[in-house]
Amino acid sequence: MIDSSQHLPAEQSSAAVAICTAAVTAVIPIRNEAAFIARTLDQVLDQDLTGVELEVIVVDGESTDGTQEIVKRYVESDQRVRLINNPLRLSSAARNLAIGLATGDYIVIIDGHCEIPSRRYFIDLVDAFTSSRADCLGRPQPLDVTDATPLQLAIALARSSRLGHHPESFIYSDQPQFVPAKSVAVAYRRQVFETVGLFDPSFDAHEDGEFNYRCDQAELRCYFAPSLAVRYFPRNSLAGLFRQMFRYGRGRVRYSRKHPGTWGLGILIPALFVIYLAVGAVASLFLPNVWRLFCIGLACYSFALIVSAMSIAWKARRPEMLVLIPVVLIVVHIGAGVGVLTELVHPRGSAGALLA
Predict the structure, then answer these.
(1) N or C, where is the chain less crowded by C-beta within 10 Å?
(2) What number is the average pLDDT over the span 14-40?
(3) Cβ proximity of 149 and 240 under 8 Å
(4) pLDDT digit string (tens) for 104-125?
(5) Angle in degrees, CA 100, 102, 108, rounded to 5
(6) In DSSP terms, which residues pair with 136 in a beta bridge?
(7) CB atoms within 10 A of CB 49
(8) C-alpha dihedral over 172, 174, 180, 183, to 10 degrees?
(9) What single DSSP character describes residue 181?
(10) Could you give the angle at the alpha carbon of 215 between the alpha carbons of 210 and 218, nearest 5°?
(11) Whose CA is closest to 82, among 72, 92, 91?
């Protein structure tokens, strides 16, 4: 439970914090990000760095789309940028490689496909660490990027709803507060890695949640700083969204298998939904009574989707999203459910390799 007495004022004036040089390392794990990496690096490098010494470590998982060539141009033109090869290709391995080379007092993870809306990002990061005295920082991660397609907008709206993401997550919050690290931490004091170790290299998804859980277990404090919001690009296809949720479902099961105390109904609900669809559809072919119950269940689910879509579209003032939002939510639920089931039945099996 979050102690409300720990909350900081909504606005922390940077003038209240003594200005001194702080070293920050931005870690950018990537693979096949040719469409986004230049824009991300431009935003990272074009920052107000008053009082901040910045280094940028880009860790590439053997991209095949020309990503490395793009990053190399930045390495040649800006001495703050380094490019490291990641033969294991996993984000967990990329983070560990960068942390081993980082020289910053603070280390922040930034994805290769995101938007950084503020030019004070690293100043605000240092100020948040200094004023909160936290060990880790969390940030909002909205999906409302510019120039989004209708599908990307629908994904952004659906994923930020109660039916679209884990209810314990704070990533769509806008309130400064101390929170558990497990759902949001992305920036760390260097000493954190000395305390809890590195990211688990066996994880190919949800490695951040697993690492942050260890931070919570070590009783490290995490402060949620809305000023550090970074906008993430939603997937541009339903197939891509399905693969993302599939990997997330598998990662959640591996996480709970490693930390048994984290098992909960929230992890299993998507899997139970997929089982209901599969078993109900087959049984309905042979048993009329089951068919009626199956249809009643589908009607209830459909009603929940429609009500949720109406609420989301109304709040966003985007009535044209009424059709796409339910489709997106169905893909989210089924993708996560299939991922959970696959990991339960066949841990790290061939199906995961095909869909990852």
Answers:
(1) N
(2) 82
(3) no
(4) 999 999 999 889 999 999 999 9
(5) 110
(6) 188, 222
(7) 17
(8) 20
(9) G
(10) 125
(11) 72
165, two tokens: 């993401």
> Which DSSP category does 113 fall into?
S
159/171 Cα distance (integer angstroms): 11
- Give me the amino acid identity at 7: H
Mind listing the pLDDT tens digit for each residue in 84-99?
A: 999 999 999 999 999 9
pTM, entire model: 0.85
Q: Please state whether 327 falls in left (phi above 0), alpha (psi between -120 and 50) or beta.
A: alpha
* Whether 49 contacts 124, CB under 8 Å: no
- The length of the chain in residues reads 356
In 3-state terms, the chain is what percent helix, strand and coil (to 5)? 55, 15, 35
Q: What is the pLDDT of residues 251-264, one digit of tens each?
A: 999 999 999 988 88
The phi, psi pair for 109, rounded to 5°, reads -95, 125
Dist. CA 116–CA 121, nearest whole Å:
8
In the beta sheet, which residues pair with residue 84?
59
User: Please, which pLDDT band fits residue 14 given cuts at 50, 70 and 90?
Assistant: very low
Strand blocks (E) in the chain:
22-30, 52-60, 81-85, 106-109, 114-115, 136-138, 177-179, 185-189, 222-224, 231-232
- The tally of CA atoms less than 13 A away on the side-chain side of residue 144 is 11
- Evaluate whether 181 touches 215 at the Cβ level (below 8 Å): yes
Q: Which two tokens stand for residue 304?
A: 């929940």
Give every strand in the sheet of 81-85, ordered side by side.
81-85, 52-60, 22-30, 106-109, 185-189, 136-138, 222-224, 177-179
Decide if pLDDT at 55 tops 50. Answer: yes
Q: Is a pLDDT exceeding 50 seen at residue 191?
A: yes
Locate the domains of the chain by residue range.
Answer: 4-145+169-234, 239-355
* d(C-alpha 221, C-alpha 134), whole Å: 5
Q: Which two tokens stand for residue 331?
A: 């893909």
Q: Which CA distances in Å does 330 have to 42, 66, 86? A: 36, 34, 34
